[in-house]
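User: quick one, fold this
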Amino acid sequence: MENRIIECVPNFSEGRDMSIIKSITDSIEAVEGVKLLDVDPGAATNRTVVTFVGSPEAVVEAAFKSVAKAAELIDMSKHHGAHPRMGATDVLPLIPVSGITLEECAELARKLAERISTELNIPTYCYEAAAFTPERKNLAVCREGEYEALPEKMSTPGKEPDFGKRPFDSEAARTGATVVGARDFLIAVNFNLNTTSTRRANAIAFDVREKGRPAREGGKLTGKPLKDADGKPVMIPGTLKGTKAIGWYIDEYGIAQVSMNITDTRVTPLHVAFDEVCRAAADRGLRVTGTEIVGLVPKKTLVDAGKYFLAKQQRSLGIPEAEIVRMAVRSMGLDELKPFDPGEKVIEYMLEAEDGEKNRLVDMTCRKFAETTASEAPAPGGGSVAAYMGALGAALGTMVANLSAHKPGWDDRWREFSDCAERGQALMQKLLALVDEDTEAFNRIMAVFAMPKGTEAEKAARAEALENATLYATHVPLRTAETAAEAFPLLLEMARKGNPASASDAGVGALAARAAVRGALLNVKINAASLKDRDEAARLVARGEAVAAVAEQCETEIMKVVEDIINS
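Assistant:
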């Protein structure tokens, strides 16, 4: 399952006193499950932009604590700066990164805004996707008049905050008001051009940006700008929705670039913007030579791009994620100006490194995994090995699909086999996750035995914890069996329709999947035997037995197909 990750980018009205800024960021980092990515103070604006990511629950908690700390340390009645502002925590957006929708972030933002108002007594407005009215989607509407307008706004119907309506007293004067919302991830990207002309780069930017360019009399670039009945400029829209762009020259690189902010990646993904800028540049006799991503991006941005360029080549999309990302890097020239390390540019990869997931069983070499299993340690054991065998079975089905997608003469079938390979990749990833989850289940049981058991209450708590841990340890191998069984339809399809030269690989995959199911069932049975709830134990074992019976039939069918091909 994809990890649920959101980003938060609060703006605090302090950019000069580093001790205050440090106290605020310390409150963020004190929350487990959050990673602080960036702290950007500005003395002239007297404002600091902070970026952090993590699970939705952890990020929301860290956001709340940072608002509380800012309210404690920043006095808005004494604040002056060049940037528009309304509160100690001025604006606080939640941004979906992976495994969560914008709508879900909007709901989290509304609840956070309400909590800030009730627990901290800070008036809050909701903007962007969290707005309660269309007008308040625009941050400028919420912040109209800035801090100085709050006394009048807080008592005027239609202008009062969404939460925390009250008189502008001394407490409100100190904290100001906070604007909480949810918005899409903004991607800042520069497209490198084979020119030094800022004018030509600007022309391309105007061609593609959503706002477009002013219309002129006679359609000429030097014609008089056209205006509508209200005296406003008439604009010719650009080709890319949800984008802002300008052209500029970069002394450091000696080239002109189209600098773009993609504000709605659902409408305009990065790879679509890249191709459109390439087209617009070519229409003007120029070329895009590479791409520079500013800041971080969600993994989906590069995975979607890699798959897009693979599909254009009629290549299978069911290849490892790292290869897909490399395709994106090569296709868009992300490493033209400087090395591009996905581990330092992709949010999810940074979090994985922070969590120490490189110590997982599945990150071991084959030799290390085997040697660790063969050691005196009780884990990894049969459950983890069963999950790994299932992963290998799915991997073999995926391999046959990929080889079939590239088989000479089968070019018109590439999509058919690519779809199969993607199914196989997804199954393999699920089973790889179960390799480590099975060991985690064992560790939970071991942790129970370290619990105190002196008093009757402690004994009862220990017994309940043991039952819950054992139930979890029974469910994990059951999921392994059921997930491994999902590989059989893929393996049968590859045995029947895939590259005949790889039929034996489909057969080995079926054997591995069957072993995974049978091995996982043994773990279901041995753990279920320790459950106090005998009805639940019987139900779980019955589910496992049913899966094993189907697995046996599937293996027999696949092996017959494979033997027939080999003997034909």
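User: anything notable?
Assistant: Residues 66 and 433 are 34 Å apart (CA to CA).
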